[in-house]
Structure formats: C-alpha cells, structure tokens
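Postdoc handover notes: sequence design on the structure in folder B. Input tokens:
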C-alpha cells in the first residue's frame, strides 16, 4: 500500500513538473524573426557579429532569435534577444551601437542586453524595444545598421518599430506606458527639459509620441496647446503643485465681478517653420555667413539661419557632390577598413585658405583616421 502511494505521488510530481516546464517555455521563450516596420521585406539579422536589417538573409538562421526573459530584469515585458544559431550570444548595445556578443556574465552586459517591449512608436499594433539602462533610447535602424537612439522625428519612430513574426501562439504583450502628467520626455521626472520639449512641439519643430502627448496634456482637455505649456511652467516654478488634469481638492475662490477691461491689440505670435535634415554625429563650421554641417556616412547640409536647412548629401555613394569618385579616391582606405562607409567627419579651414575634411574608418576595434582637402 505504501509503495503504491509513493509511486502515485512520484508520478503526480513528475506530471506537475513537466507541465510547469512546458508552460514556461511556451510563454517566456519565443522563437521569432523581427521584421522592420518601414522596410517590411527586411529583418533584423547578425552579420559578422554586427546587427543590421537585410532582406533575403542567408543563412536564414542569422535572422532568427529567441526572446528570453531579460538578463537584467525578468519581469513581464522585459526580454533579451538571443541568437538561434549562436546560443549564448545576445544583441547588446555598446557606445549606442548594436552587435551580437557572447554573454560574459557581468551585470553591465546583462543591462546592455535587456530591453522592454513597448507599443510600436510608429504603430501601436507593432512593438518597439526600449533600452533597460537607457530608457530614453530605443533600438532603431540607421543606414541598415542597428543603433540605440533617442527618438524624435517621424522617421525615427518608423525606424524603431518592428513586428514579431513567430509561430508561437503567445508573444510578449507590450506594457502600456504609465501616464505622468507633465513628464513630456517620459524620463520619470518633471523639469525644464519637459518645458523645452513641449515648447518645441508647439512650434512644430518636433513631433511627440502618443505617450508623450498624453503626458503633455496638463489641463486634461484632450488637446495640447499653449495653456498646457503655461501650467507646466507654473508647476516647475512651484506656483502650483497639482496639474488641472490631476484634479485639485482645494476650494476654488468665489469669482468677483470686475469691470471688463478694454482689450489691447496684440501682435500675432511668430511661428517659425523649420526644415529638418539628417546628419549623424554632426560637426558644424561657419563661413561667409553660411553654416555647414558634416557627419557620418558623408552626410552634409547647410543653412543661413539655423532654421531652414538644405540637405546636400546623405550617403557614401558614387557621384556624391563632395567626393564624386569617393570609392576610387579612397580605395586604399575602404579596402583596409573593409567597410563601405565613413564615420564622424569634421571640416576645418587652415591658414592656407583650404578646407580640410577629417573622417574615421573602422576595421574592427582599430580606427583609421584619414584626410582629404579642397580649396
């Protein structure tokens, strides 16, 4: 009798244990491909341990990932992205670049390789990956390479939005962001940075995500305008301690009738119209009243007023206006660095009147600085 009870108990324990393991693997480890939102024929993949988006990935397993519980935070919504064909290797950021690296067991690696799944910044039916230790930055692609960037423009949001393509029936559910009235940049605190961001939004120089727009609605009327900016200013200056959107239990003073004041004509506010350009890692030089900015990937732009910008070049390509025969003139550098792009350009004018451009090309962990000039 005792033996039968013991056997039954052991059998029951085995069934329960196997059920727990099955449930855990089906709900916390998701094998998936990560599809770009604005390049739906491209997927996140690793190539020579760099992280990028590509189409027609060969071998296909280079674009297959396991979304596992976050190495630094195993709470719901946090994941780490492990390679299927390189187990133990994860996507992690370093100097805001994404690469595939082996888990070295350090807390820094765990934090750099942990991301929070949030509603897609460009489309809430998709997802975005928010950095665990840099919560104002998200995984996005730029020139097909993956980076960890702060998201400002509409294009940024599209580049930072992805779709999980998985055969699993359960996928991680994005955690809705909390609403903190007044916290326009969603960094968990309310300060002058939020005031500046909201002011730029009202001047139409930037766009805001849905989450940030909800936070900016300080009076709770469903619209974001100068009234919300005024309440935010009063809150930062400690004139008020509660936003109208949060309610106020203090008694309201009884209004008294006062003679109507004669309205004073006011000048309409000037609303500047900005024209944006894209220059990564910028360096600015001013000459003859014109500002020129140059950055990575031979991106180049100019302006006379710092408001209306003109994009002159945006990529390293044959026929570009800066170095038309770039691949011929810099062949030795490209061959040495085994790359097809240039990083962090800079221009100075020396006493001889010529302008010199410095740039960086990288071979693994060994930087190569080169120089070219023009009159």
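Designed sequence:
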């Amino acid at each position: 009798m005792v033996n039968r009870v013991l056997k039954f108990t052991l059998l029951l324990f085995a069934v329960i244990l196997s059920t727990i393991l099955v449930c855990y693997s089906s709900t916390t480890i998701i094998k998936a491909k990560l599809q770009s939102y604005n390049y739906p024929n491209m997927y996140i993949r690793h190539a020579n341990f760099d992280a990028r988006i590509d189409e027609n990935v060969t071998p296909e397993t280079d674009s297959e990932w396991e979304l596992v519980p976050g190495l630094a935070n195993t709470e719901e919504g946090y994941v780490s992205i492990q390679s299927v064909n390189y187990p133990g290797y994860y996507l992690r950021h370093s100097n805001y670049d994404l690469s595939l690296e082996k888990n070295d067991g350090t807390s820094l690696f765990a934090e750099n390789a942990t991301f929070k799944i949030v509603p897609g910044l460009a489309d809430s039916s998709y997802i975005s990956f928010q950095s665990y230790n840099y919560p104002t930055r998200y995984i996005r692609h730029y020139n097909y390479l993956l980076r960890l960037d702060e998201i400002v423009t509409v294009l940024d949001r599209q580049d930072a939005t992805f779709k999980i393509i998985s055969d699993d029936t359960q996928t991680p559910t994005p955690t809705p962001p909390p609403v903190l009235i007044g916290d326009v940049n969603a960094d968990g605190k309310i300060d002058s940075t939020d005031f500046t961001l909201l002011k730029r939004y009202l001047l139409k120089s930037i766009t805001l995500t849905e989450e940030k727009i909800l936070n900016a609605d300080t009076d709770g009327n469903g619209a974001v305008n100068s009234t919300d900016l005024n309440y935010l200013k009063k809150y930062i200056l400690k004139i008020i301690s509660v936003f109208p959107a949060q309610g106020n239990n203090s008694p309201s003073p009884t209004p008294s009738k006062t003679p109507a004041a004669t309205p004073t004509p006011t000048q309409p506010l000037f609303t500047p119209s900005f024209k944006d350009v894209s220059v990564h890692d910028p360096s600015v030089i001013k000459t003859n009243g014109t500002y020129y900015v140059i950055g990575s990937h031979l991106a180049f732009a100019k302006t006379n007023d710092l408001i209306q910008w003109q994009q002159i070049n945006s990529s390293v390509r044959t026929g570009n206006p800066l170095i038309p025969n770039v691949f011929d003139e810099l062949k030795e550098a490209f061959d040495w660095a085994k790359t097809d792009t240039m990083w962090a350009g800079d221009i100075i004018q020396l006493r001889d009147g010529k302008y010199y451009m410095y740039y960086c090309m990288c071979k693994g962990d060994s930087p190569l600085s080169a120089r070219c000039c023009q009159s």
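Context for whoever picks this up: The two ends are 100 Å apart (CA to CA). Don't rerun without checking with the PI first.
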